[in-house]
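User: I'm new to structure prediction. If I give you an amino acid sequence, what do you actually give back? Let's try with this one:
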Amino acid sequence: MSDSKTYSILAITGVTPFVACALLPLVGIESIEPFGALDRVTAIYGLAIVSFLTGIHWATQIYELPESPFNLLLVSNAVFLFAWFAYVLGSLNVALVAQLIALLVLLGIDRWLHTTGLITRHYLSVRTVATSLAAVSLLLIVLS
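Assistant: Good question. You get back a string of structure tokens that encode the predicted 3D arrangement of the chain. For your 144 residues, that looks like this:
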């Protein structure tokens, strides 16, 4: 992770839909056509983000195999499957809570990767900010 400008922009841009879907109902907007209800949009988008973050872990595993503290292919895939099964089998709130948990677990993995030197402090800081914003947004959506 050497291009800090690129991943910083991607992280902040990527968290924007979570924040928008959490805040728009506060001003009376409950859905956006043609996409539908904002909580459903969030659940679908959240799965995409969890998948994206899992893909980053896969790339880290593939390119940094000897230094990886554990098998990121298996661990991050298990986190994604947890979120996916919650979406497929649970209610919308169950899916959103599962995504919240998945995002926090993936951030925990990133913290571990930082301690092993596989990711930079700056990358971890950006991920922490983005995950915090997404987590608060998901919590607002679930509680509303």
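You can read the tokens as a compact description of the fold. Here is one thing that stands out. The beta strands are 31-32, 36-37.
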